[in-house]
Structure formats: structure tokens, C-alpha cells
Give the backbone structure.
Amino acid sequence: MFSLKKLEMIKMPDFAVWSKVNKEDCRKQCLENCSCVAYGYYTGIGCLSWSGNLIDLRQFSVGGSDIYIRLANLEFEEDRNLRVIITITVTIGVIAIASTAFLFWRWMAKKKRAMKSKSNESLLFDYLNDVKLQDLPIFNLEELVTATNNFDMANKLGQGGFGPVYRGKLHNGQEIAVKRLCRASRQGLEEFMNEVALITKLQHRNLVRLLGCCIEGEEKTLIYEYMPNKSLDAILFDPVHQKLLNWRKRFNIIEGICRGLLYLHRDSRLKIIHRDLKASNILLDQELNPKISDFGMARVFGGNEDQVKTKRVVGTYGYMSPEYAMRGLFSEKSDVFSFGVLLLEIVSGRRNTSICDEEQYSGLVGLAWKLWKDDNIMALVDPAIWDPCFQMDILKCIHVGLLCVQELARDRPNVSTVISMLKSEILDLPTSKQPAFMERQIASNIELTQQGQIRFSICNATISTISGR
């Protein structure tokens, strides 16, 4: 027989196994599994369980999460003295485990401290020993609090999957954007370290520049160059501000995004797949030049890898390629698919999700395909950019966008080919095949699951599905 001991305000240990069950089934699952030593259930995440040693287990004075330790019952007797002994034994055991884990963590931190004087920076080395922190400025929290006026809501620029972003000004007058990890964020230390690791190795005029980072206790922030025109979606989908983007400026943004992607895929020291390319992750500088941002979900390809399969699908519905959303397969062509959706959004001035409630289309891609097949594609174009002088260029961009969102990855062009098409270096564009998410005629207003097919809506939220590592 076994019982469970509840511990409160605990840092979740590493190496959890995730399962999508309810709270009661999570408890039963742990009790019935001989190798399970602890479990926790967290709203929005699901059931996490641990086996073997509980690595990096420690208790906070504030915050933290509840965790249930699985303990053996030495036959429950009515003898109260025996129960007291068991309670004391369990408590001592838990304290011993926590103390051992804490001492182990301190030993690891001390081992790395020689490489950096600040104890906070040792965390970076623990989790990311391949980053040259000597080349990355480290900000202290007090400096950022002053720069953002204590993270005043008046300085908030936006909110992403990582957390809120604030505008700030350093003591030397330099404006910055402070990306602050939210405790409730679905992204965490792994994404934080991943972004630091990648972006410190990347330098390109169409990629956002990381100025430094800050790690102090629970506080984790990234400091970027400030983009005065915020993100592309803030202008493109705003009825008032979208008029600032004439066709020449939009085409310049399209070309800039392509150059940034080409650098990630082919020209940088690392072959990188972004995995979350969308309008809100394209920042605009003073001259409306685009800069790709948010590398928390990006992945590096090694050797001759062309395609990778993952159990952890992350990104944004509506921008995900079908092979990635359905089977966890991602490659350069996954980013090309996302770019195709983004290209159609730039030309139309409409969000991909803005028409997801219309029954006869499945998003902007479905509408574009329908209009293209009906030889009425100009109906897709944003009236704010319509000009007969640019008609051929606009049509070409729509054609390229449809080529990028074709259902099969092998049919989509790579980024270098896309650039050649946009520059008219390739004059005869291939015929576009059916997009991945084509038009769907819905027979009635009743949402049925016929022939095993599930109809779901598309949203604009970044997702991060947790699975066991």
C-alpha cells in the first residue's frame, strides 16, 4: 500500500513525464505505477509525474507549485504512536531529499562560478554551457526596474507567449525593449536559454538584435534594441495605421523577411528553423524595415539534416504547416509555409484568422485559393495598396504565397527560390497546387464529426505542448 504526501510551494523537479489526464486519474496513475515517486497536476498543463531521483527539488518561501510524494505505508495501524513515527520518518525523508538536491545544486553552481563572478550567471552555464556569455552584456534587475519605471503598464509594448514586453530607457539615453518571462508563461527556462543561445550567434540586419539578459532569482529578462514601430501586426491589421504601409513599403517588408529567413536557413553558421514565423514576430524599425524576432522555439539543424520529427509541437495555429501540426515533422519548408501565410496577410491586410468563422473557407489561405481558382484574385488585395501600376507585382506575390502554402512540403519552393521569384529572376512561375488547408463547404451549421474528421477553429495564440523528455 502507498500514500501520498502533499508538499506546497515546491519548484517542479526536472525530467517530468507528461500525460493528458484529469486530476483524479493523475493521482491513480501515480499510485498504480511502481516507478512513480511523485506527481503534480497543473491547470493548463496537465499531469506531470516523476520516477527515479527528484532532481533539483527545493521549496520556495513564496510561489512554487504543489507536488505529491508517493510514500510506502508500513500497514496502517490504529496505534497513534506508529503514525507519529511514520510522519516523522516521512518528513525527515523529504527534508533529506530536498537537502541533498539543494546541496547538489549548490555544488554545480559553485563549479561554474569561477567562469563568472555573479551567482545568477552560473545558472546560464548550468543550462546552456555553449553560450559565450563574455560576449553578452549582463544587466542587473535594478537597472531594468529604473529603465522601465518599475515595469509600468504605461511602458508595456505587448504580450507574447514568453511574457510581457516593456519599453525602457537606459541611463545613457538608449531605448530598449525588455522581454520579461512571466511565471505563468507556457514558455520557461528552456525557451529563454534557447533564445539566448541562438540569437547571440546570429547577426543580420533583418534579425532583431539582442543587447543582453538578466537573471536574478525568479526574474528572467531579455533586452533587445527598441523597435519604434512595434510589430507588423500592430500596423498591418489596424484600420488606421495600415494606410502607412503602401505597396512599396509592404514589398520591402516581404523582401526583408525573405533575406532574414535565407540567412537562418542557409547563410548563418547554424541552420536554424524558426518554427513560429508570424506577423507579431516581425518587428519594424524607424524606417519600417522588418526584423525577425522571438527565437525561443527555434531549432538548430545539424549535419545533413533536412527534416526532424518532434513530439513537442510548438508554434501558432494558422501558420503551422500540415506535416508539422499533424505529425510533428518540421524543416525549412515549415518556415516557408508560415511565410506563405504571412505573405497573403501582407497583401490582403487581413489576419489569417479573421475569416475562420466563415463557413465556406478555412482561413485566409482557403479564401485566396477560391479567388485564385475563380480568376478573381484581385478581390483579395487590400484597397489601401491597390494601384494599376503595381498589379503585376501584387499578383506575383499572391502566386508565390500560394506556392508556399501547398499541401506537400516537396512542392513548396525554398527561400532562395522565393527570392528569385520575387525579383523576377524566375519569370515562369509553376502552377500552384491545392493548399494544405483548402476551402471547405459546410453542409449545415451543425458541427458534426463525420468520417472521423474533427473540425476545429484556428486561433492566433502561440502553443507549447509539453511531453516527456
In short: Residues 75-79, 114-134, 438-461, 463-469 have pLDDT under 50 and may be disordered.
